[in-house]
Write a structure and sequence with these properties.
Layout: H1 10-15, E1 30-31, H2 34-47, E2 55-58, H3 61-64, E3 70-89, E4 100-118, H4 123-134, E5 137-138, E6 142-151, E7 154-163, H5 176-185, E8 187-188, E9 191-192, H6 193-206, H7 212-228
Antiparallel strand pairs: 1-5, 2-4, 3-4, 3-6, 6-7, 8-9
Helix pairs in contact: 2-4, 5-6, 5-7, 6-7
């Protein structure tokens, strides 16, 4: 089957870019400290024996920007969870004045993503790096959780980050129209919501993963960006 052609193009994504200064951490937010990370690491190590491979499940930016060393990757399915633009971003890909959205795993449905197997050396150090990338605030926006995944190579357990609906940045569920508007107009010092969506869909498709909801979103976001310049 020939590759699908995305409506959301690099040219349309480029229209969303603007230079945004990093506002820095929210001074009113509570941030995790070293003791918090150590406690999370202790919990994960107790749940994941050293004899078991260490897998990390990517469903969004981890797929196209993993920033981790890995020795294997597999397309895998997490059942009981789905991708959702349910996390409000007032930094990184949005601002306090114009919040953006990022994805998280939320309850229900299923999600095809990519499982990355990390090397066996320095497991605690690797887990610490991943936790500090994904979890920063108290109460946490994400819950680190071990999920059972299915893949062509068999079943496996992988660390995933699922939304904490009681967390400080939980925004969903949102109407599709609002998700489209935020993705088409938000931008932070890391880039725009449209760029995040574009790279996620592009890299999923390259791995043979077709997410119908994201495919529809990229088409609607492309229409919204094009209409703003007409």
């Amino acid at each position: 089957m020939p590759p699908r052609t995305m409506s959301l193009t690099e040219e349309l994504v480029a229209r969303c870019f603007r230079v945004v200064e990093d506002s820095g951490p929210d001074p009113n937010a509570m941030h995790l400290d070293d003791a918090d990370y150590e406690a999370m690491l202790d919990t994960l190590e107790a749940e994941l024996p050293g004899s078991e491979p260490l897998w990390l499940f990517g469903y969004g930016s981890l797929i196209w920007k993993p920033e981790i060393d890995h020795v294997e990757e597999r397309v895998a399915v997490a059942r009981g969870w789905h991708r959702s633009f349910c996390m409000k971003m007032t930094r990184w890909r949005g601002t306090r004045e114009q919040p953006g959205l990022m994805m998280a795993l939320d309850r229900g449905g299923q999600c095809r993503g990519v499982a990355f197997r990390l090397g066996d050396a320095d497991r605690r150090q690797q887990l610490d790096k991943v936790l500090r990338r994904e979890v920063t605030l108290k109460p946490t926006s994400y819950h680190p959780r071990l999920l059972n995944l299915s893949s062509d190579g068999g079943t496996l357990r992988a660390l995933a980050f699922v939304i904490n609906r009681k967390g400080t940045t939980y925004a969903g569920p949102l109407e599709e129209k609002e998700v489209v508007e935020r993705l088409a107009t938000s931008c932070g010092h890391w880039g725009s919501g449209a760029d995040y969506l574009y790279n996620t869909v592009k890299n999923l498709e390259q791995r043979g993963i077709h997410d119908r909801n994201l495919w529809r979103l990229q088409h609607l976001v492309a229409e919204r960006i094009a209409a703003s310049d007409s």
